[in-house]
Amino acid sequence: PAAKPEPTDESEKSEPEKPAPKQRAAKQPAKSPAAKPEPTTTASETESVSEDKSETKKQAKGARVPKQQPSKSPAPQPEPAPAPVETPAEEKPKGRPAKQPVKTDAPPAAEPEKPAPAKSAKAPAKGKAAAPAPEPEPAKPVQKGKAAPKGKPVEPEPEPAKPAVKGKAKGAPAKGAKQASKEEPEKPAKKAATVPAKATPPPKVAPKEPEVVTEPVIPMPESMLKANKLKTKRDSMRVKTAASLMKKRKLSTIQSYKRAEKYEQEYKKLEKDLIYQRRTARQAGGFFVEPEPKIALVIRIRGILGVSPKVKKILRLLRLRQLHNAVFVRLTGPMQQMLRLVEPYVTYGYPNLKTVRELIYKRGYAKIKANRIPLTDNELIRQNMARYNIICVEDIIHEIYTSGPKFKQVNRFLWPFKLSSPRGGFVKKRIHFTEGGDAGNREHFINKLVRKMN
Predict the structure, then answer these.
(1) DSSP for 120-155?
(2) Angle between helices 222-284 and 378-385 (to 10 degrees)
(3) What separation, in Å, do the N-terminal and C-terminal C-alpha atoms of the chain show?
(4) Who's near 64: CB < 8 A, 6+ residues apart?
(5) Where are the beta strands (DSSP E) in 101-242?
(6) Model pLDDT for residues 20-70, shown as the tens digit of each residue
(7) pLDDT of residue 145 exceeding 50
(8) How far are the Cα atoms of 315, 331, 413 from residue 257, in angstroms, in the given order?
(9) Residue 319 CA to chain centroid, in angstroms?
């Protein structure tokens, strides 16, 4: 590179330098930074740029002129240089920038304003490249061996862009940005300091227990004490009676089972005796006369129209007040005469054990204090008929079938049976059974009719 021309006279040093005329630069259309290709620099250009920077620093120290503060904006990217052409070794590249003249102490009024730092000088965020600056206008080349005219300082030209370093992005941040990036790790600590700390909950204070106010005890009156004593006594008596009733019920159930077994054995014995007597009579060549029946079942088959007062009275005595009512009667002399008088209005016969049992179990109702109550529990019978030694349904069946000593009491205890009309209907009510009708005595055929009406 050419040697720097030093001032010869002291007069030249003291003379104020006049500003040189502005170089006319060819106006070029602004290009978008995205479309600019990355500039290529040669080794010779990088050396010339470094030497020029060192010379300008020396001049600035000798002249003691305040430096212009460089803008913190990223370095402008010049236009891409043309492809290098092979030239002889003696020739040097013409694109060398002009030297910066030394400026004298100028009054503060003439001092150029400092350019405001660009907003893009801030450190770019991580992972984002800085936006490229607008492209500066190229300076005119200076002829070889010629220095700048005396007294006319040349306007400083923009410094060419530094060569790109490997591993750095296109929009690398400036020096100021580097310092900002170094201080970045301190930011999280500031944010953490600004975050308000979690408010610690106030300590839990145990609630104060309310003060127990003791009231004066008022003695109970004597009437209340007596009433409480009576109540406790009644409760104890009720418990005792309930326990005793439970014991009695258990005993009664046991007794009823035992009586039922006893009655069953008696019925079987009676039947076997009849069978044995019939066989012996047949073997002897004689005839066996059946025992006379002890009871009869009477059923009313006609209404009240055309009934004489005498017949009506007998029907009331037999408790046959409604159609299809049925009752058990003991066959005595007076009873047989009464039945003969009311034969056109009733039918009767001699029931067997099965008929008696079915009627009482299915249609049996008790007459308790003039009320019709169904026989659903042995306790009802025990409460009302225990004085006659009758505690269950089997006792009632046995008394009626055998015409026992308590037949009258048991028969009065039972409500008259309310039967339905027979399935298939009656044949002819006005005619006697022996003539093909339904009225009168039908002996053991009454069982067939009861099965139709039950």
Answers:
(1) GGSPPPTT-PPPPPPPPPPPPPPPTT-PPPTT-PPP
(2) 100
(3) 148
(4) 105
(5) none
(6) 544 454 444 444 444 444 445 555 566 665 666 666 665 655 545 444 554
(7) no
(8) 38, 30, 22
(9) 69
**Residue in the block written with tokens 């007794």:** 255
Give 306-336 as a DSSP string: T--HHHHHHHHHTT--STTEEEEEE--HHHH
Distance CA 413, CA 450 (A): 21
| CA separation for the pair 342, 293 (Å, rounded) | 20
Q: CA nearest 364: which of 339, 348, 385, 350?
A: 385
Cα separation of 185 and 416, whole Å?
A: 113
Asked if residue 314 lies in contact with residue 276, where contact means CB atoms within 8 angstroms, the answer is: no
pTM value is 0.49
Alpha-carbon torsion angle 218, 224, 226, 230, nearest 10: -130
Place of tokens 């050396």: 47
Structure tokens at 148: 């700048």
Whole-number Å distance between alpha carbons of 52 and 55: 5
With tokens 């040189």, the residue in question is 20
Query: Is the Cβ–Cβ distance between 162 and 38 less than 8 Å?
Result: no
pLDDT, one tens digit per residue, over 174-188 is: 454 445 444 555 555
Task: Measure the CA–CA gap between 249 and 382, rounded to whole angstroms.
Answer: 9
Q: Residue 403 and residue 56: Cα distance in Å, rounded?
A: 156
Q: Are 327 and 335 in contact (CB under 8 A)?
A: no
3-class state of residue 417 by DSSP: strand
CA of residue 35 relative to chain centroid, distance: 64
**Dist. CA 128–CA 169, nearest whole Å:** 10
Reading the block at residue 119, the tokens are 């907003």
Cα gap 376→366, rounded to integer Å: 10
